[in-house]
Amino acid sequence: MNDLNIVHGVIVRPEGCFQGNIEIRGGKIIRVCPVREPVNPARDTVDACGLLVFPGLIDSHVHIRGGRFSYREDFASGTMAAAAGGVTTIVEMPVALPPASRKEDFVARVQEAAPQVYVDYAMYGGAGSDNLEEIPCLAKAGAMAYKTFLMPPVPGREKEFYGLCSETEEALARVMEKVAETGRLLAVHSELNQYVQAQTEKEMKSGHNGLKAFCRSRPVEAETEAVRWVITAAQKTGCRVSVCHVSTPEAICMIQEARAKGVDIHGETCPQYLLFHEDSGEHAGVFARMKPPLRDKARMEKLLGLYAEGAFELTGSDHAPYLKEEKLKNGPDIWHTYDGVPGLELSFPLLMNAVADSRLTPEAIARSMAQKPAAVLGIPGKGRIEEGADADFVLVRKLDVPKPLKITELFTKCRDSAVLYQGIPMHYTVEETYVRGKQVIHKGNITGKPGWGTFVSHEI
């Protein structure tokens, strides 16, 4: 007897949607069939008529941090947020205190998360010019991939960025050589400080403030020239790389051109760059400060079009949990606040808004939020609704009347910092989320248990 059958739903695959049934046993999908075919008996049956059934989504770029920063977000609150947003696997970035740049610190973070998580989790290890000898050790400890920044540590946060910075082309090549030996992916924060610093000083000396001034301070060239570094170093070393949170169409076109020439490089973007621009985000002020910044409307629209065409293989929220009082520590001063926005439980619902107005398709989301991330990162058993895969699903309903988003109802601890999203009419809702055959969300309520999520390591 099956443990669970999901019947009559519209099953979403990158190559197309069809009405079908799914049979689950032992946390795995054992059969997928058209709706007209009978299913074997099951202990539980979910009638998904009228619902879209997506594969469990993978967020490739999450900052939970936990530990000393658990007051901002811990692995329990963060993975509850993930489940509420249809994310069944998070890939946690290594920026923390201490960062996951030494084997013992990486292992400690895995152990910290284990009893708390509601969904499955993988972790990046740190890779920088100052922890080269630790890189192979992190692979053996289970690092799914690595992360490096092409910028110096944020002033005052140097300890959080140990083993995470490659500030010169030579340093980046050395880091890539080490990562290449592991066969893992290196994710790169691609902005160059020389462009940012000069423009920031110019804006500040001119007395400019506010979001648009901040966006001007981080010009397109800071990203594109950094991507040029990444491509060159990847060509020399053979390292597998991804460019994090791409914010410009120029950068993803460079990545596509390099891939066409045989470079093993992949692009990641975030919903905020696809759906918001410097004008539409201006009202949020410090709550819309992120790195890289929001761009102009024309670039945003072009980026969304490229996403719809499949240019991006990874989708990350870049969830950065800071409390409202932290973001406002210097009032509305855009130059002296923390970077980043919460988004872990909103990425998928926001992208579904773009489905509602025909700018995206469900297939495009399933490709870039599930199938491709699993393939690029090497996450076993994830990313598709097919026989033998993990029984990770998201059941989604289109609302008859859009419902304005209330950030007070979010699960994340940093909900009050989600000002950018307050009041947006949401056209779809996550009805249920399943992780390995177990329901963890039902109509906005947590039904799962902490510790159900498992640590996912690299598929060798």
Short description:
With 460 residues, the chain is of the alpha/beta class. It is 30% helix and 24% strand.
Which residues form runs of ≥5 with pLDDT under 50? none
Radius of gyration: 21 Å
Number of DSSP strands? 17
Question: How much helical structure, as a percent, in the residues?
Answer: 25-40%
* Discrete helix count: 13
Give the strand content. 15-25%
**Helix and strand string, N-terminal first?**
EEEEEEHEHEHEHEHHHEHEHHEHHHEEEE
Major sheet, described briefly? 9 strands, mixed
User: Distance between termini?
Assistant: 33 Å
Question: For the residues shown, what is the average pLDDT?
Answer: 97
Q: How would you describe the shape?
A: globular
Structural class category = alpha/beta
Overview features:
alpha/beta; nine-stranded mixed sheet; metal-binding; eight-stranded parallel sheet; 460 residues; Metal_Hydrolase
